[in-house]
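Hey, resending since the last one bounced:
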Amino acid sequence: MMEKIFSPETYSVLGQWALGFCKNLLVAALVFFIGRMLIKWIKKLVTKMLERTKTDPSLYSFLTSIVNVVLWLTLIIIIISILGIETSSFIALFASAGMAIGMALSGTLQNFAGGVMILLFKPFKVGDYIEAQGYAGTVKEIQIFNTIIRTNDAQTIIIPNGGLSTGSMKNYSTEPYRRVDLDFQFAYGTDLEQVKAAISEIQQRNTLIVKEPVKDSPAVAAPWIGLTKLGESGVVVNTRSWCKSADYWTVYFYMNETVYQELKSKGFMFPFNRMDVNILKS
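The structure tokens again:
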């Protein structure tokens, strides 16, 4: 009975299978050692690239971990394939699991992707004054999923990175200079040249206001004053004063307060909206 089960043909088939399996095992072992060396080399290469681009530390560790996991999964699938084990079921399992996780965490993944884009391309950095998603303030922290800003009245605003990376945003700290645009309304009949002379003297007196064009910043120009509109209650005079970005609010309040106080003391009238009602007698 035993001779029938273990016939010479059976021994031959088993021997061929064992020989083929040993060959595959040796190839798999060789691929494993070479693959492990390649993974180390790729990780070092990615690390140098991240260090060269000065990637944020919070993103740095996460990206290196992701690269490490992906490379090891790829190596394991290759080794399983070399050993003769069907890999399509493993790939299908990974794909379905990834799809299920992606659908469950779609909003979170969107915010994560937005955080990665922000940390990589740096449209703003910590300390910048930005306006986005209906809020304006100074960036205090850039996290993987959210960006935290502090408004001028000391409120803490947490903005998801998904909308922040895809929506419109103003970064007031990118350029070294900003222009302070202000409109002042004066009563009809006011001498325009006297108004311009009085405001110009106020601009020239402030040391924070740029007096001449800046070579490195072509847009920066000398102070400007002009009549821009004939309003319902008076003429509207626009003033433009360039200053360093850090001095914007100082110049803004200085111009508003000084123009109002000094021109009022000189007899210039600041009109207010009014309505004339005519009564007709029948």
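Helices lie at 2-5, 8-52, 57-82, 88-104, 106-121, 161-166, 192-205, 248-265.

Sorry for the duplicate.
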